[in-house]
Structures are given as C-alpha cells and as structure tokens.
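note to self: dont lose this again. the chain is below, predicted strucutre after it. 288 aa total, dont forget to put it in the shared folder this time
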Amino acid sequence: MKIIVPGTTSNLGPGFDSCGLALNLYLTLEIGGEVEKWVIHHTLGVSIPKDETNLIIQTALALAPTIHPRELWMNSEIPATRGLGSSSAAIIAGIELANQLAELKLNDKEKVTIASNLEGHPDNAAPAILGDFVVATKINDSVFAMKHVFPDTGIIAVIPNHELLTTESRDVLPKELSYSQAVQASSISNVMISAVLAHDLKLAGEMMENDLWHETYRKDLVPHLPEIRSLAKKNGAYATFLSGAGSTVLVLVPHSRLEKLKQLLTETFVDATVQQFNVEREGLRVQN
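---
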C-alpha cells in the first residue's frame, strides 16, 4: 500500500492562513509488513528520524495508539522548511497511515479537521488532502473548507538553498493591526479570491502583490522577493508571492512566457533551484 500526499503553496499573498494550492510534488509513503519496532527508511538526512519519533509515525500513533509497528519507506520531493508544505504532508501521511491500519474510516472533512488542528491552521492541510485551490478557515476546533478549480497557468518556484523556519518567519509578524488596516487587508483578500474564481489571473495577481497581512513584515527575511517580482513583472507574469512562510517564492505566468522567464530566473538566481510546477487537482490518494 502506498500513500501519496502533494506539496502545497499557501497564502497566495493576502489569503493569509486561509488560501492554499496543491502542487505536483509529492511525499510518498509505502507501507510494509509488521515488525517488532517501527522503522521508516528514507534518504532525507540525519535530521529526519527513522524510528517511532518520526512525525509521520507520531501522528499515526496519536490517532491509533494500538496499531502494530510496520516497516515503512518514505520518499519526499518536498523540500523541508521552504514554504512548500513539507510538515503538513508528513502529518497528513501519518493521519492516512492510521486511517488505513486502524480502519478508522475517516472522511475528507475529518482528515482536514484533524490535520488543521495539528498544524494550527488549514491553508496547507486542506489543499494537500482535497487538491486544487482551497479556501478554508478554522473556528475553534471546527474547520470549514471550500475547494475550487484554480485557473490554468504556468507556475515557477524559486527555491533558495537556505532554510527559513516557520517560527522565525512568524516571529516578525505584528501582534495586532489597526481596524482600518485589517479592513483593507481583508478587502484585498476578498477581491483576490473572487478574481481567482472568475479565472481573472491578471486581477488576482494584482491583489496577490498588494498583500497587507504578512509579506511586508517578512521582507528582511526574504530579500530576494522584490528582485524576483520585478524580473517576473517585466516578463509578463501575473503574480509573484511568498510561498507560505518562505523562503520559496512562487510566480504565476502565462504558459507562453513560462520557458523564457524560467531561464532568466535560473540564470539570475544561481544560489536557488528554479522549478516548474502544475496544479495537483486530486490531492491525497492511496494506491493498493
């Protein structure tokens, strides 16, 4: 049995802690036979545990403490601490591991709720489970999520070689905003979502680049963002925004301009990986 969880980008500028998009890079977990002690084989480095302290196994055991240890094989295309949903993917893989082994019969809404409560917010968890573009909110312990079709577009990620921890990126955010600033930030987010649903990426992109919730406060942590945005804008991109808490920057661009812009970004940002992605429409899935 194999569990496949996509990576995600979240926020999309003003959709802070609420909007997310599933991408076609994946964490894959293969479930083997029963063993005496949990073991998870991977080649992701010494910082990722290979025993029961691994986040995937810890999550599974939190939901189903009595499941028998298994031998697992994990592969992940999602870079850690780069704002592409690596921790969400691990948590969701753990939820599905428990769901399968303990026959919990969880539905998608229950999976989204559990994952969002463990993560703290649903912007990565919901699209990783449901696929495509998801707008979600968490009120107390209840999660409300709506999946929509994101417009067809080229997607380029500029992934710096340095990490940016979510905790570090969160620490620079203000504790509160003025009422008038919060109203304006909310209205920008509302127009962005409306434009996405109308498949108007030009307008959506303008709103994405006028976020007031988080990007302005994180600018010192992601000094490459303005330069990428300027280069992308000159070459016909719809939008450039910080992916999650960073350090990855995502660019939405018409397919006709994609190859040229990708080449320019690769040549300009030599200390980063430049990748092309598509929207993952399906989300979490299990192969037997």
